[in-house]
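[SOLVED] Need 3D model of a two-part complex

Original post:
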Amino acid sequence: MPPGLKDVARQAGVSIKTVSNVVNGYLHVAPDTRARVQKAIAELGYRPNVAARQLRGGRSGVIALALPELRSAYFAELAGSIVKAAEERHWTVLIDQTDGSAERERGLVSRLRRHLIDGLIFSPLGMAGPELAADASDTPMVLLGERVWHGPADHVAIDNTAAAAEATRHLCELGRRRIAAIGAQDAPTAVTARQRLAGFEAALAEAGRRADPGLVAHVEEFHRADGAAAMARLLDSGDPPDAVFCFNDLLAIGAIRTLLDRGYAVPGDVAVIGFDDIEEGRFSSPTLSTVSPDVDRIARTAVDLLAERLDLPRGEDAPAPREVRIEHRVVVRESTLGRLAARRV
Amino acid sequence: MPPGLKDVARQAGVSIKTVSNVVNGYLHVAPDTRARVQKAIAELGYRPNVAARQLRGGRSGVIALALPELRSAYFAELAGSIVKAAEERHWTVLIDQTDGSAERERGLVSRLRRHLIDGLIFSPLGMAGPELAADASDTPMVLLGERVWHGPADHVAIDNTAAAAEATRHLCELGRRRIAAIGAQDAPTAVTARQRLAGFEAALAEAGRRADPGLVAHVEEFHRADGAAAMARLLDSGDPPDAVFCFNDLLAIGAIRTLLDRGYAVPGDVAVIGFDDIEEGRFSSPTLSTVSPDVDRIARTAVDLLAERLDLPRGEDAPAPREVRIEHRVVVRESTLGRLAARRV
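Solution:
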C-alpha cells in the first residue's frame, strides 16, 4: 500500500493536520516543521491521492482563469487583480492563454476538466453563447468581457458602447471636427470592436455629424504596431484627422508614436484618447486620456460570483445566471487636454 | 459502470481515436465532428478518467509556468513566448503567479503536484537552491532567471552582470560623468538587483571611476512608480546625474516621466538606459535604450530542455542539471542617443 498522510505524520513527528497543511501549501506552517514534513514526504515517496480527493468531491482550492493574451497589458493587469482577489479566499489561480482562438477555447474547457479546478473565470473571444452553454454544464464558470450577454453563466462586463460614446463625446467637446476611430474589425467574432464603433458613431450622430468612412481605420489586432500603422494610413490619406478615438490604449500609444514621428503635436494638432487605462498610459509622454473600467471591481466581482456558486449547499438549486455591469469613467490626461490643462484636472 | 470512450464513440458514430482527440482538445477535428462528440459526451455524462490516466503514467500534455508577476511586462511577454513555444509541442501551459514570495513559491510546488502536470518552468524569486532541490525530486523542472545557479534543475538565464556592465559602458562612452543607478535592493533574495549593481560598479571601475553612493537609488519594487520616485530623489539631492542606468525598463520609463515633468531633456540633460527590451520601450517617447535578452530563445530553450527530460526512455538516467546562457545585446535608441542619432543607428 502506498504511504498515506498518517505515515508521513508519524515519520515527521507531527500531526496529520500539519502534514495536510504542508501538502496544501498553507502559509502558516513554521519553516522547520515544513522542512521536516517535506523530508518525510520525500523519504516515504508520499504523493497526495488525487483520485481519492476527487471522488470525495472535495475542493482543490484551485480555479482557472482563461484569457486571450497576456502580452496585452489590459489582460495582464486584469490577471494580476484576479489573482489578488482570489488570494483572499486562499485560492490558487492557474492561467491559460487562449489567443482568442475558438479552437483553443474549445479545447480549454475539456483540458481543464481533467484538472482539479473548482471553477473557471473565462474571457472568451472566439466562442459564442450557445456553445459555451453546452460546455458550462458542470464546471462553475464566470464570463468576463463583452463577448457574451445573457449567456449560460454569470457574466461581468462594463457597458462598452456607452463608454466608447463618452470617449468620443469628450473629443467633440474639445471642438474637434475631424474625429477618427482606430480599431474597427470586420470578423463576426469582433464584438469589442463592433460595440466601440457603435458608441463612436452614436456620439457623432448625437452631435449632428456622421462618421466619415475615410476616418475609420481597421486593424488586424489591438497592439501598438497596429495603432502605429493605422495612424500612418490616416495621415497618408490626405486630409488628416484632428482627433482620434482608439479602441484600446495600446492602439493609442502606437498612434501617438506615429504622430510624434511625423512632427504632429499631441494634442495640439491631433488629440488622442484610448480605452482600458493600463498603467503604461499614466507614465507615457504625453500621458494618455482613456476610458477606465474598474478592473479591481471586475476581478473581485468575478471571484465573489464564483465563490457563491461553490459555496452552494448540496442539493440547493443554483441561481440563474447573473449579469453584472461594472462602472467605468473617462479619465482625461495630456493626450487630449495638453500638459498644463491636464495638471489642473 | 460509468461510460467510457468506447460508448461515446458508438453514440457519436466516430472512432475512439476521434473521441480522444476531442477530449484532449486537439485542433484538427472538424467542427461538426467535434459537435457530435461533445453532444454524445454530454448525453452520456462521460468524464475522462483522470485517475486511470495517472496510474498508467501517461502524459497530461500540460505544463505549469510559475512567474513572479504578470503585471511586470517582461514576465507577461516571457509568458507569451513560452506559451507559443509550448504550443508547437501541443502542450497547454498553466501559469501561476507567485508574487515572488518564498511562502507562495513553496506552496506552489506541492499545489501543482496535485495536478496532472508533466513538468514545470519556474522563475523563482524567493526560494533558494537547496530548498528547490528538495522539491524538485520528481517533477521535471526548468529554472529561469538569475536566482539560482548550479541548482538542482536545468537552468536558463542571461549573464546579468555582464549585461549591466555593457549598459553602463554605453553611458560612459557617451561622455557622461555623473552616472546614477536606479534599482538597488538590500534584501538577501534580491539577486537580480545585486548582479546588476555589480555590473554597474564594474564598468565604472573599468573607466577609472567609483560609483558615488549618492547616485545609487534604492527601490522597493521594479515598477514604473518606483522609478519615478527614485528619479525625483536623485534630482532633489542637489547635484543631479547626467545619465542613469535603470535595472529594468519599467523603472526607466518612470524615471523618464519624472525628468520630463521637471523640465529636463532626455537624453540632452540626462541619458537613460533600461533593461529587458519590453515592447513599451519601442513605442515610448523617447524610445528607450535597453539591454535586450533574447526572450524567444529563453522560452524555446526552456521548453526544449523540459521536453528532453519528458522524452527520456523509462529506466534511462536523467542527465545532470544543465546551465544554458542565453545571448543578450544592448539596443541603443533615443533615450541615450537622441532622436536624430537614433534614427541613423
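Edit: The radius of gyration of chain B is 25 Å.
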